[in-house]
Description:
Pfam families: Ribonuclease. This protein is of the alpha+beta class. Helix content is 29%, strand content 19%. The chain folds into two domains: 1-36; 53-155, Nuclear Transport Factor 2, Chain: A, CATH 3.10.450. The strands form two sheets. The chain has a six-stranded mixed β-sheet, covered by helices on one side. A two-stranded antiparallel ribbon has the order 1-2. It has two helices and eight strands.
Amino acid sequence: xxxxxxxxxxxxxxxxxxxxxxxxxxxxxxxxxxxxxxxxxxxxxxxxxxxxxxxxxxxxxxxxxxxxxxxxxxxxxxxxxxxxxxxxxxxxxxxxxxxxxxxxxxxxxxxxxxxxxxxxxxxxxxxxxxxxxxxxxxxxxxxxxxxxxxxxxxxx
Length: 156
């Protein structure tokens, strides 16, 4: 009987220790994943707040940690692009309105074709520049000033 108790103790203690290590690792990784959702840097005015917002289609966005920016905080060129999106064009670049693949997976995961991208002109840039607005099928708009390295949900 004493041998059996000792054997259970010898198996139980390392098992509990291993479980605690695993739980700690999962917590650390989850914390890292939620804090790497993008930076607030880049072009575009104002300091955006982390808030809950509602997309143009009425779909609630939980406080998922994504930075938000108001239309008024965006550069003038972004507001022009938003107006063109609402009017249905015409757009200055032939790539405008094409499917955005979300390869970086910084936006909520959706089916292919859910997101479309539009160029935000960058004054002085010899090409399209790095700034884009992404429109979701539900009407939610996202802004990136750094060519998809980070996004801010636009509060309309």
